[in-house]
Amino acid sequence: MTHPHILYIKDDPSSGDVMRMLIESSIGANLTIFTDRIDFMARLRALIPPPTLILLDIQMLRADDFKLVADLRADANAAPLTIIALTDSLMCAEVQRLRHAGFDGALAKTLNIKTFPALMTVLLNHESSWHLA
Amino acid sequence: MTMELISTGETPPNFFALNINPLLDRDSKVRGRVFTLRDVTERVEAEEQLRKRSTDLEQLNRALEVARATAEEARDQAQRADQIKSQFLASMSHELRTPLNAILNFTEFVSLGMMGAVNERQKDALEKSLDSARHLLNLINDVLDIAKIESGMMHLFVEDNVDLTSELRPVIAATQTLIKDKAVTLIQDIDVDLPSIVGDKRRIRQIMLNLLSNAAKFTEQGSITLSAKRRDADIMFAVCDTGPGIAPEDHNLIFEPFQQTDHGIQHMNGTGLGLPITKCLVEAHGGNFWLESQVGEGAAFFVTLPIRSAALLEQLDKVSQEKA
Question: Which residue pairs, CB below 8 angstroms and at least 24 apart, start in B45-51?
Answer without folding.
Answer: B45/B15
